[in-house]
What does this fold into?
Amino acid sequence: MMLGLLLSLPVADGATGGFLVVGLWVFLLAIFVGVELITKVPPTLHTPLMSGANAISGITLVGALSCAAADFPQAGRVLGFLAITLATINVVGGFLVTDRMLGMFGGAGRGKKDAD
Amino acid sequence: MPTDPMGAFTMESPLIQGAYMAAALLFILGISRLARVRSARQGNRIAALAMFLAVVATTIALWGDAERETLWATLAGGVVLGALIGIVLAKRVAMTAMPELVALFNGLGGAASMLVAWAELERARAEWASAPRGADGLVVSEGAFGLGTVNLATLQGPLFAVAAVLSILIGAVTLSGSLVAYGKLAGKIRGSRLGPLGIRPLNAVLLAVALAAAWTVGFGMAGNPEAVEWAVYALVALTLLLGVGLVVPIGGADMPVVISLLNSYSGLAACATGFVLQNNLLIVAGSLVGASGLILTRIMCRAMNRSLANVLFAGIDAGADAGDQEYTGVKSTSAAELAMVLDAAQSVIFVPGYGLAVAQAQHKVQELATMLEARGCEVRYAIHPVAGRMPGHMNVLLAEANVPYERLFELDEINGDFKNTDVTIVVGANDVCNPAAYEEGSAIAGMPVLDVWDSRTVVVVKRSLSPGYAGIKNALFERDNALMLFEDAKAAIEETAGELGEL
It folds into this structure.
């Protein structure tokens, strides 16, 4: 619904319209790659998968950093600072706890029955 | 600072874009390594490296543009503070509390996406407010809709307007929804005080008003950035309330579905933010997470034989009156008797449920399993997909107790083997081994269950005959080959191991 609305609207400038198309291509292809890869992850690893994926969703940190750019008003920077803090907790905590969990899977008899 | 070579880079520089592409590829490579237990740890580290690369590239790109003090303060403050909190949380969490932590992290990720979109709106508004105005006080612009109807969409492009609003909507719902899920998982929030009927019409109203606010932010309020400010506040507040309203009525047993779905949302929020910032890396990484969450949601729904709509909108089924809860012919046993049964067994399957984790019995089960193996008995574990509180949770709990992962078997792999098994020990599980799943008209009809009753003897370690989350009677307890061991799981297994040691 939103997509149809978006596509039917007049585009303000060429660059934005161009990015919408490119962005949607990237989105569709990445979803496809994601589905292909994640269906191969065995159930044993679903919890680490989720916490690892969660850390990856902290990529929004990159966007949060941009809020330190010069053209942001004070309010934007405060929001950006908050966003950086929260996203970093998500990223650092997420990757670390996933590593901690996966370390437990090493254990005895490693590699005997590697799922799939 | 024009002499600074670092200042020469912008987001569009080939070096920065190259680093972003490398990061995107490394994320994909990292996730592909998660397909095997052996390479999974490396995969996670590759993904972490990708994140580090992306952050460094972004910092370099900002070097020329940002005021140096702001940049340093932001990095030193936000990143260091966030990292410290993240380290403490990751190191201290107990594995039983993993679902809570993942819910919390999900919420923070959603919050960050929401805040970035909000900050972008503030920037756009500042630009708008300082734009030249005509005699009528309206901002003069050659927007696509012509003069006089200037709004966020015509100034920043409709993509910016829609993506920013979506980013706030999804991010806020993820934040407040995850916090409610956290509360439910941690046992701090129980059910819905508003009742199953009360909250749903409210959600519809919330959504409608939030969409109206979203429309105002993006497309309304011609030439009036001040009015948009209030619409932004309203949008944030309403979507936060919506997240609460959506998750509060969902029952504790459905939390694995909810966490998976919120996981997906946190990715989609990052994705929407990618469209706001026109940054492909955010879109790629966000989509990967979105896809992951959706697949896990589907797996969890299948394991409970329910549709997503049913989980989200059916509310807490108050046990469907629980039907007949009278049990006849239940045989109870003791740890000493169980030890004697085990002494003669050649093959044993453990069926762990969340009750095992609550009782912290996983280490004792592993000790008993080691004893049995030393006596030449084959020991395996049958893991139902919803045995824990999130997808794969039971596997992590058993891995922590040093149970080798090659002893863990999924439902499909092991279900045919119960009939060749001497003893099956069900510890803290109930609905996942209820034969009612095969009866038409039952509350759990069609749900995949473990056919534990096919083994020669089934011992159910359980405190009482109380029903599981489904709230129905479990006829397994009445079967001729079923024995009930009414005790705390940890104590029961410990005593059994002690008795077995003396045989």
